[in-house]
Amino acid sequence: TSIYMADSVKEIGQSAFFNCIKLKNITLSNSITEIVDIFDGTIIQTLNIPKKVNSVKRGAFEYMRSLRDINVADENEWYASIDGVLYNKAKTDLISYPIGRGPHYEIPVGTKLIGPHSFRHAISLTSISMPASVKIIDYRSFEGSGIKEVIIPEGVETIGNSAFVRSDNLVNVLFPKSLKNIYSNSFRFTGLTEVY
Length: 196
Prior knowledge:
0% helix
């Protein structure tokens, strides 16, 4: 149920631990620089990103249904964690919300981009609070989430392609006057009944 990875390991290939359904704990090598979708189907609850990682694939954790916390080494120059949620170092780009969490998340002030795939498949998430600092809700960011209602704050200018697609429980959306672009399929296959 646990793996300790020696620092001699420099690369982990895609799907390396795919469907290791009993894998609960892993200590990653301090030598790796990239994380892709390695852990799909595991029951890992906490993932610690080492100091040399400079590339995390968008959506790398979207099939880790038990994941509750993503932590980042303080020495890492590219990424940061805010209360277990992955951001870029400047804390302006929300990269990955652990989908084992729920039911509510309040995005911190200062966040400008809700990144691609960041809340994808977060079925336990039913509500979200966005600050006025957000400018872009990027593509597939909430695809397949459990979100029921979205109040998009003033300041948001763009909702990306398929941003809320297949969020079956989504019934209400409040749009801001600042909104300039809504891309294709943004709300396709949702339960949307009311728009304000």
